[in-house]
Amino acid sequence: MKTNFDMTRKRMSRNAGAFLILLTFLLQMNSAFAQATYPVVDTGQEIFYDSVTTIAPPAMGATFYGQDATYAGHQPSYTNNGDGTVTDNVTGLMWVQTPDLDNDGDIDYDDKMSYDEAMLAADTFSLAGCTDWRLPSIKEMYSLILFSGEDPSGYSGTSTAGLTPFIDTNYFGFGYGDQNAGERIIDAQLASSTLYVSTTMGGNETMFGVNFADGRIKGYPTGPMPGQTVDKQFYVMFVRGNTSYGINSFEDNNDSTITDSATDLMWTKYDNGQGLYWDDALAYAENATVAGHSDWRLPNVKELQSIVDYTRSPATTSSAAIDPVFHCSTIIDQGGNTDYPFYWSGTTHANMSPNNSGAWASYVCFGEAEGWMEMPPMSGNYTLMDVHGAGAQRSDPKTGSPSDYPYGHGPQGDVVYVFNYVRLVRDASVVSSTELNSTEGELKIYPNPATDNIAVDFNDLGSGKASLEIYNMLGAVIYSENVSAKANTVINISKLRPGVYFLKFQNERSAYTKKIIKD
Predict the structure, then answer these.
(1) What distances in angstroms separate CA 194 from CA 9, 341, 493, one per listed residue?
(2) pLDDT digits over 48-97, tens only?
(3) Using omega within 30 degrees of 0 as the cis cutoff, is the peptide bond preceding 224 cis?
(4) Cα–Cα distance between 422 and 141 in angstroms, integer?
């Protein structure tokens, strides 16, 4: 099982300062979590995988180290309110507990709605004394996905008893596709309010939906599916509260990094510029140093989806579906046209196949989510088109060759690249070991150990407003002072009990922490 210790292993050195980094990390994470308006809920993936199947947790530095299960984010936490609603304790969102909207005790085709019907129903929906329900955005809807689920694609049975969906069924109602109504087991898409700013399938108005049966975001027509006369039907779960959720707040740090204060995540402004196998992407992230930080990781798929800009697409803005504060590489797609890459996540897209459960990993499309559609069906004539929309989340094989999939994968012929790009992430509030041992400036404390007074020299750490804080071993602040950088100060510690403390200096540029020993 993932722990916060797992999350910090990479950052912990083998010297006596290791605990310092851990303590600083925990203190700052607690503060950041309280301020974030868009905290990304962890994927819940606790199993480790190689390029084929499950493995024991890899050691630091070993192949496959740094995948999703290595790092613990904001762990999923829900409260059943006992009134048909569930509160997500991480996001602050309140959800309708079940898509059984006709209240007949089962979740089937009769509960489904078209996109237009769902939007209208939200306006008049009332539950638990609340009338401010809304159809969730795609980012709100995706906050509920858990990658402890297994994709049943390829499953030929009809029983769903042994299947594991991508949502916590201890708190939420869930239904697979209604086979009695002619649906497939995986026809369990939930509607969102987010429309694609372009079109798919050669001109369809498209809504992004989350499929908790197979663990994907795809674009679906708001009207009929090809060959159908009735509008596509979706399960629906309304939401209320935290209207800031899903809204980013990016700042260019002018050092090749971008901070999103809404999620408290820091990203590299530039991607790696080339496609890699999944294990090489993990290694690239674990060994990266950018802007003085060495604690970068391959983002889990929910972190990666958090930076999609659903107001942008190649066809409508001539850009990737990401805020222009980021730089996105271009690629030549399989049709010879300019597009933007798929980006690897550290999240394995587990399949229920016992011998091949970990062969695919999740990615997010920042360009078109293309597929090879056979037009007309069974004709042998394949046309490359945007089938699911920029901002879709699908999966690719971790190894192999794209030539093994000349017309893609799955019913829409999803394009398979295998070699996908990398954009790095780290926790913005965490002070990394590189920062703590920065050669650009040094926080000096003397004498140390000390009995009565310590002199703190931060003359080399920049100018401007700054603060000094001293923490005890429990993380409590026992001293706090606002200071002017480029000046030094003396602190009386005579009343402190003998032991170990931590002094933190922070200005607008960076933060430094050092251990104090009180004799």
Answers:
(1) 38, 22, 56
(2) 999 999 999 999 899 999 999 999 889 999 999 999 999 999 999 999 99
(3) no
(4) 25
Q: How far apart are CA 431 and CA 510, in angstroms?
A: 9
Rounded Cα–Cα distance for residues 231 and 222 (Å): 7
Strands of 453-457's sheet in order across: 444-446, 453-457, 489-492
Residues 6+ apart with CB under 8 A from 449: 517, 518, 519
Given a contact cutoff of 8 angstroms between Cβ atoms, the answer to whether 234 and 218 are in contact is no
Alpha carbon 178 to its chain centroid, in Å, reads: 30
The residue among 93, 395, 140 whose CA lies nearest residue 247 is 140
Are 151 and 214 within 8 A, CB to CB? yes
Give the pLDDT confidence of 130-180 residue by residue, as tens digits. Answer: 999 999 999 999 999 999 999 998 888 899 999 999 999 999 999 999 999
Indicate the SS3 state at residue 282.
helix
Are 389 and 200 in contact by the 8 Å Cβ rule? The answer is: yes
Name the residue ranges covered by the structural domains of the chain: 4-12+39-75+252-427, 81-240, 438-518
**% the chain with pLDDT above 90:** 69
Tokens of 380: 């042998």
Indicate the average pLDDT of the chain: 88
Residue 316 has phi, psi (to 5 degrees) of -105, -30
Question: Residue with structure tokens 């931590």?
Answer: 502
Residues 334, 384 contacting (CB under 8 angstroms): yes
Position of tokens 């607690």? 30
What gap in Å lies between CA 508 and CA 510, rounded to an integer? 6
Q: At 220, list the tokens.
A: 């679906």
Cα pseudo-dihedral 350, 353, 354, 355, rounded to 10: -100
Using alpha carbons, select from 419, 398, 307 the residue that is nearest to residue 349: 398
CB 218 within 8 A of CB 227: no
- pLDDT on residue 433: 44
438-518 to CATH, choices 1.10.287.90, 3.40.1000.70, 2.60.40.3080, 1.10.10.10: 2.60.40.3080
3-state helix, strand, coil in the chain (%, to 5): 15, 30, 55
Residue type for position 160: T
Question: Which among 406, 435, 401, 433 has a CA at the least distance from the CA of 418?
Answer: 401
| Nearest CA among 48, 68, 71 for reference residue 58 | 48
Sign of CA dihedral 249, 147, 109, 201: positive
